[in-house]
Every structure is written in structure tokens, then in C-alpha cells.
């Protein structure tokens, strides 16, 4: 599937990077090209006409797309991930939503909605932030507390995008092309079959896991989300290292009269960046391989492994951001002009790293506590 995301596609993402930033969402041409690639079909179940690929096949194309545009890679990656997330719902919900192709759904998961009991489902009201890709969305997956007031339970709710209102709030200094506006829903009916319990999603035991009988749908959600979301940071750092190498090879240092490439410190920075990025690939391969081996056997992924995976993703982002900063600070003042891709990569990864799943302190605390056999909060994001 990696060949579907061609070098030419990535080049066009780069060419549209500034326009996408100005638009504050993916350009229509990018969405049209994405649809033509079939990439969003990668994790769609075979019974609905998709490829039902192994989950790890999603990661590398998203990393490569970030060589063109961090924001575009993030939005496209999440469009594809949310097709996988839909496959975790029950059969009837999948039949309804997969009838729309491509299935393009933002999925703000924080439970900031309330689903009150109604005959055959819930009446949903709420407002959600971080609805990546909502401008082109045709469905919506949101987090909500459902059930009676004395016994609510966290759930994901699936509903048509036409039942939501977009609130234009995405005025940011990075990741602008993701179009991650707020969405609001008022008293929308969501039938019971379009709800799935968060506890089942977290544990890899959601209805779709049994429906499709494929390891792809037994991946637990937090590791899946975190590792996918880390790919644009890693790909961006790789591209920044390439751009830095090109730049130092051509740059004459003012007041020194020598090429920057001839300075040992410039050489050392590049070498350090390259080895740190290679180390991240090793961590990524080990983390993904461990989970894939477990889900292939049919076993549930232990909480310790899930905590380690969240920390691995957070570390990939933490290191990628640090590598970008190290190279950026040695690239001169002209990289701050808006026509320099270096400044956009830096701004985008700075903003990306603020995602809650990449909180480096919390990720380390959770992984350490689990390694020590300690109790962590039931609501902890692992």
C-alpha cells in the first residue's frame, strides 16, 4: 500500500503547504487526490470493500507524507485511522457509515457531550474541540457520557456530519491545515447501534474485533492513536534534517567567509540528528512489533504494554521536536521567512506535541507506575 502514496503525491503536498496553511484546512485538490489513491480504504474491512491491511501498514505512509506537509499528513492519517475506528463499531453502524465513500470523519474523543437515554438510543448534546478534518467530513465520531445521571458510561457516538455545526475557532500558529475546528450538536438522536463503549475500545474488545476476525481490529485504541499521531513529527524531523544538510552545503556564513559545511559543529549537528532519528525507528519497530505479535495470537494487549506504547509515541515526538529545534537554531535568521518550509515544520511540530497523548510527564508516570505494578486511575489514557 505504501506505493499508493507516491513521491509525486508528497511533492504536491509540499507545493500546497502554504496554501493549505492559509486556508486552514486541506485544499480540495488534496482531498480529491487522496480519494483517488484509495489510501483511506487501507484499514476498511474486506466485507465492506476495503483492504483490511495489517494496522502497522498505516504508519509509514503517514510518516512519508510529512516530508511534504506536517499538517496534511496529520489530517490524512486521521482520516484513515477513523475508518479503522468505525470498524470497531457494531455491524449495523458500519453498514450505514461505510455506505459513504470515502468515509471522512473527524473524531474528537474527549467526552464533552452528554447522551441522555431515549427510546432506542440517546439524545446527544455537546461541543467538541479538535475536530481535525471537519471541513471535508461527512460523518462524525465523538466522545460522550451516555446513560442515566446516576450511572453514566463513556462511549463513542457515530452520527452524520450534517447533524453538527462547525464553529470556526482554528486560528493557530501551527498545524493550521488540519482544520481542527470545534463542532456542536444539539439534541441529536443517536441509535443504540451507533454507540460503542470506550472501555471496549481501549481494551481491543469492541464489537468489530469479533465481527471481522482480524488482528487489525484487536489493536487497542490508545497505542493505535498515539503511534499514528507520532508519525507526522518523525517524518517532519527527517525532512528538516535533509533540508539542513542541503542548506549547510550551500550557505556561506556572514562575517566568517566560509561554507557552513566546513564547520565541524555543523557536521556534528547533522550526524547527531541522523543517529537520533535512526534510534527512533528502532524504538518504533520494537513497539509496533510487540503489539502486532500479541494481537495476532488473539490475546488482549496488557496495560503495561499499552503504557509503554504510549510512552514510545510520546518519546518519538519529544525527540523529533528536539532534533528540529537543534537544526533550526543553526540555520540562520532567513529560515524565519514564511516561504521557508523549515519554519513551518517547526511551528507544526511544536503545536502537534501539545496533543494530550504526548504529554511527556504523564506518559512517563503511567508507564513507570504500570511497570511497578501500581494502580493507575481507571480513566488513564492507556
TrEMBL record:
Q: What name does UniProt use for this protein?
A: Acyl-CoA dehydrogenase
Give the organism the record lists: Mycolicibacterium sediminis
* Family annotation (Pfam families): Acyl-CoA_dh_2 (PF08028), Acyl-CoA_dh_N (PF02771)
Q: Which UniProt keywords apply?
A: FAD, Flavoprotein, Oxidoreductase
MF term (GO), any: acyl-CoA dehydrogenase activity
- Give one GO biological process term: fatty acid beta-oxidation using acyl-CoA dehydrogenase
Record-stated family: Belongs to the HpaH/HsaA monooxygenase family.
Q: Which GO terms describe its cellular component?
A: cytoplasm
UniProt domain Acyl-CoA dehydrogenase/oxidase N-terminal: residue ranges? 13-98
Q: Is Isomerase one of the keywords? A: no
Amino acid at each position: 500500500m505504501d506505493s499508493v502514496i507516491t513521491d509525486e503525491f508528497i511533492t504536491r503536498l509540499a507545493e500546497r503547504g502554504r496554501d493549505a496553511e492559509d486556508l486552514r484546512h486541506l485544499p480540495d485538490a488534496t482531498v480529491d487526490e487522496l480519494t483517488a489513491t484509495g489510501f483511506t480504504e487501507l484499514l476498511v474491512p474486506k466485507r465492506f470493500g476495503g483492504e483490511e491491511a495489517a494496522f502497522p501498514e498505516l504508519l509509514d505512509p503517514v510518516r512519508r507524507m510529512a516530508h511534504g506537509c506536517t499538517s496534511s499528513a496529520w489530517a490524512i492519517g486521521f482520516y484513515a485511522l477513523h475508518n479503522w475506528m468505525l470498524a470497531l463499531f457494531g455491524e449495523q453502524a458500519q453498514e450505514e457509515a461505510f455506505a459513504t465513500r470515502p468515509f471522512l470523519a473527524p473524531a474528537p474523543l474527549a467526552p464533552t457531550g452528554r447522551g441522555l437515554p431515549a427510546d432506542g438510543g440517546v439524545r446527544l448534546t455537546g461541543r467538541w474541540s479538535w475536530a481535525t478534518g471537519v471541513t471535508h467530513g461527512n460523518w462524525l465520531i465523538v466522545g460522550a457520557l451516555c446513560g442515566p445521571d446516576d450511572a453514566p458510561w463513556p462511549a463513542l457516538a457515530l452520527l452524520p456530519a450534517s447533524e453538527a455545526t462547525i464553529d470556526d475557532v482554528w486560528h493557530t500558529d501551527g498545524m493550521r491545515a488540519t482544520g481542527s475546528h470545534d463542532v456542536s450538536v444539539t439534541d441529536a438522536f443517536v441509535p443504540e447501534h451507533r454507540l460503542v463503549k470506550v472501555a471496549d475500545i481501549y481494551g481491543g474488545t469492541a464489537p468489530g474485533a469479533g465481527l471481522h476476525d482480524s488482528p487489525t481490529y484487536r489493536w487497542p485504541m490508545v497505542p493505535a492513536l498515539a503511534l499514528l499521531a507520532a508519525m507526522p513529527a518523525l517524518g517532519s524531523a527527517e525532512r528538516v534534517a535533509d533540508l539542513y544538510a542541503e542548506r549547510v552545503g550551500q550557505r556561506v556564513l556572514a562575517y566568517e567567509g566560509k561554507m557552513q559545511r566546513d564547520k565541524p559543529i555543523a557536521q556534528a549537528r547533522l550526524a547527531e540528528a541522523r543517529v537520533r532519528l535512526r534510534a527512533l525507528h528502532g524504538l518504533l519497530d520494537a513497539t509496533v512489533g510487540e503489539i502486532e505479535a500479541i494481537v495476532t495470537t488473539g490475546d488482549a494487549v496488557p496495560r503495561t504494554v499499552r503504557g509503554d506504547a504510549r510512552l514510545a509515541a510520546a518519546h518519538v515526538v519529544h525527540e523529533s521536536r528536539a532534533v528540529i529545534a537543534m537544526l533550526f537554531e543553526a540555520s540562520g535568521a532567513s529560515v524565519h521567512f514564511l516561504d521557508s518550509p523549515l519554519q513551518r515544520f517547526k511551528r507544526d511540530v511544536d503545536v502537534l506535541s501539545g496533543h494530550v497523548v504526548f504529554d511527556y510527564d504523564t506518559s512517563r508516570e503511567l508507564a513507570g507506575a504500570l511497570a511497578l505494578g501500581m494502580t493507575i486511575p481507571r480513566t488513564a489514557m492507556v
